[in-house]
Design goal:
The protein is α+β, with helices and mostly antiparallel strands. It is built from 3 helices and 10 strands.
């Protein structure tokens, strides 16, 4: 038994509290499996992609950006939201190129996971990108301010181990990419 449907909560009422350009906040009235009543607050967001671009010299091309929600500047892998009807792999290539100027020729899909499952609907798919071509086609959104960061993959892994990289997508992608690279994966 996988437990997928065990303990499902019945939604009795759904109320939109806030509708923004990126997220929507809903308040749910629910009935628990044992009959008790409760409330849930759910953030509805678009799904996202992220890619760890690594060149032939084992350098990774990352971005540094300020994250106001946690009041910190982070070094992260390039990432972004899926456009309507866009294929996941196409979004990963687009986001990588828009944020770093590097276009991966080969993508390895690593994992899709719920990034804040306790309160958010969002999933993010992580990729390892190789066979990089520098196009210089950086196209940031009007409100984005990113700085490019280049370092060796080994240095990135050390930063993850020292807890200096704190966002889940970069941590997971680094650890999963290390596993794939240790197996000799570089092409499809």
């Amino acid at each position: 038994m996988n437990g997928k449907n065990k303990g499902i909560e019945q939604i009795l009422k759904r109320q939109f509290v806030f509708r923004g350009s990126y997220l929507h906040l809903q308040k749910l009235k629910i009935k628990l499996p044992d009959g008790r009543r409760g409330e849930r607050e759910i953030v509805r967001v678009k799904d996202a992609v992220a890619v760890l671009p690594i060149d032939d010299q084992k350098n990774v091309h990352l971005v540094r950006q300020y994250r106001p929600a946690i009041n910190r500047t982070l070094v992260e892998i390039p990432a972004g939201l899926l456009d309507r009807e866009e294929k996941i792999a196409d979004a990963a290539v687009r986001e990588c190129e828009e944020e770093t100027g590097y276009r991966p020729g080969v993508l390895k899909e690593l994992i899709t996971y719920a990034h804040a499952e306790g309160y958010s609907t969002g999933f993010i798919t992580l990729f390892l990108g190789t066979d990089l071509e520098y196009t210089g086609n950086i196209h940031l959104d009007a409100t984005e301010f990113l700085e490019p960061v280049c370092m060796s993959f080994d240095e990135l892994h050390r930063l993850v181990e020292k807890n200096e990289i704190v966002d889940s997508k970069t941590i997971l992608c680094t650890l999963l990419s290390r596993e794939w690279m240790s197996r000799g994966w570089t092409k499809r």
